[in-house]
Sequence to fold (141 residues):
Amino acid sequence: MKKLNMNKILVIIPTLNAQQILKKQLQKLKDQTYHVEILVIDSNSDNKTLNIAKEQSIDTISIKKEDFNHATTRNLALNYEADFYLFMTQDALPTDKYLIDNLLKPFDDRDVVMSYARQLPKKVQMRSKDLQGRQIIQLLR
Fold:
């Protein structure tokens, strides 16, 4: 993993009960070709979300569920100094180790002020019943 000498990248992840996916997401971020710092802003989860972040030495901020809103919650991260801020959702998993690399490339052009990546839908199972009452399981992507 190469360390950045001149650019500090802060990844901000607002969470609420994200224990099912957070450990995997944090590991995928740590596996990136660029070193990133990570901040989890948790909305008072009632599971092990905060413990997972703290076990991996991730900075955390806790807020009340009723204080969450998309803009203000993310703005809390701006109190942390960084050259680049990457805002993610708790269910966004990098598909490879080049997410940060690819997000930073456009900034080689000094006229660029923002970069983004698309989020691929995850595979989910949808359960339903047909007209005869038989169970149907569909794998959706």
In short: The chain is about 20% helix and 25% strand.
